[in-house]
Amino acid sequence: MQESSVLITNDAVVLGLMAVILGAVFYTSHSDNRFFKAFYTYVPALLLCYFIPSLFNSFGIIDGEGSSLYKMASRYLLPASLVLLTLSVDFKAILGLGPKALIMFLTGTAGIVIGGPLALLAMGYMFPQELGGDVWRGMTTIAGSWIGGGANQAAMKEVFEVDGSIFSVMITVDVLVANVWMAVLLFIASRAEFFDRKNGADTSGIVHLRKKIEKYEAENARIPTLTDIMLIVAVAFGVTGLSHFLADIIAPWIERVAPQLAIYSLTSSFFWLVVIATTLGLIMSATRVRNLEAAGASKVGSAFLYILVATIGMHMDVTAILDYPLMFLVGIVWMAVHAGLLLLVAKLIKAPMFYMAVGSQANVGGAASAPVVAAAFHPSLAPVGVLLAVLGYGLGTYGAYICGLILQQVAP
Fold this sequence. Notes:
Layout: H1 11-29, H2 34-42, H3 45-58, H4 69-86, H5 91-95, H6 100-126, H7 135-147, H8 150-159, H9 164-190, H10 192-199, H11 204-220, H12 226-257, H13 269-284, H14 297-313, H15 325-349, H16 353-364, H17 370-377, H18 382-410
């Protein structure tokens, strides 16, 4: 998208627009108006917070790619929100959720590893000319991104010698299909109780954790003073600053002494930023800092997370489908295999939709969006998304490499 074709280029104006959109969605979703009540019965509010910004980007009102708001939100607001959302968390309760979350995450990884080759095999049979050549090489970078993240994607680009022109197409397909799938997961989150009831899933662990958080809030809640708000801001951004400081030391040090660890994303500052912020938040949940939750710490954290949702939506351009229709179809088939395998295993082990959705997004979206999907079920569950996304960074290069070898064998 050329800058000259964009109506609004000033990030301050774009941020104001995003804030107005979020405010309008929240206001109307809690309105007593009959139309809005009926509308939000079928359309989740969180989905609109994500989808409306994507329309502004798609039709040239704003330039999501050219904006620095996503970097601001992912580097500053995401770690701040993780700190605030983990303050009230019972870490033992999270670990006590059982093995089903891990099973669903690994199922999601397997779905991506086999889904790519199956999609190329099926679509390549129908369109051998268009999907021949080095297309399979480009698809390895999508696998790297969907299992791990940007570092894993870059690793696959080098390992399989992906041409720059093919790589640019794959990035578009990666972002577009992943964002469409995230929209589906947000919709599933809004209907989780219905799906869990149908599947007979045991949600007792999740309900127990949620009730513990809600009970703590109810028993300790107070009207926040200005001092409370300033302390919440101090903790959120103080820990974020410390996390950046430590990440900027740790990542370059590992890159210098053990560059081979890049395959685990251990040389990525963003990886360490998320890990450190989450860890410090969990540590503080065992201290008196936890009392800030009574003043609404998690609500402030959720507000930060919703701004992140809007900036993620700003990166989606629905009109890009027209530029790469065939590759987009390959991506859809690929994601359908991933989703189908997750749903099958979820039914077999009676796993709650929360595990399915977060297990998927921890693969496809990573640390930036997995906590968003987890928090759509309940703010206290955001750390589960982070923990699984961190695991994805470790598995990303291995899973994508295996996927690449299979892609090479089935390529037309």
